[in-house]
Amino acid sequence: MAHVHENMDMSSMDMGTTNSTTSMMMMTSFTTALGASNLWFTSWTPTSAGATAGASIGLFFLAIFSRLLSAVRSSAEQSWAETLALRRQAIRLDLIEDKSFAKASSSSSSTTANDRSPSVAANFKQAPPFLWSIDAPRAALFGLQAFVGYLLMLAVMSYSAWFFIAIIIGLMSGELLFGRWSTHAGAGDGLHY
Q: Where does the record locate the signal sequence feature (predicted)?
């Protein structure tokens, strides 16, 4: 059963927060007021029109950088996949040549087309090998991309309309500039705005 508490006095409830902290936690609508939103730290609160414009321009370029990172990561994933495919092909050719050499030395018959076909087990997908030259840069790119994405998310969560507009326009501009290099179906950056 639900009880309705219409005249509940909340002034006696001490939650260990001050009024300014409570009002910041309870704010759920965007504002255009200057000095109402801090950017990542409480000491980074633009209080003038110029400071807000500067923070918005910085967020605009950070959003563009976010889309650039997505394009770089996507292109790198394609390059790494090609490198691994060439590596697998070279290993497969070495194995085929070794089998052909062994058969040729034991008998005078030549290699047939059946010897060159991959086995059923080779057709199953398997995890690519761990290579520092591929996996370390992949992890670094992902970490940087996640860091920038979270910075943008926290800026939007400040509920400043100016920051939100700057980030959206920056993401659109970045997608316009770098979107053709991103393959969302292929690499997938995991960060969707």
A: none
> In angstroms, what is the C-alpha Rg of the chain?
28
Q: State the amino acid at position 155 in one-letter form.
A: A
Closest by CA position to 144, among listed 42, 68, 92: 68
Question: Are the C-beta atoms of 164 and 31 separated by less than 8 Å?
Answer: no
Q: What contacts 24+ positions apart, CB below 8 Å, involve 116-120? A: 118/92
Distances (CA, A) of 101 to 97, 106, 110, 115, 158: 6, 9, 9, 12, 69
Q: Alpha carbon of 122 to those of 8, 93, 118: distances in Å?
A: 69, 13, 6
Instruction: Look at the pTM and tell me if it is higher than 0.70.
Output: no
Confidence of residue 130 (pLDDT cuts 50, 70, 90): confident
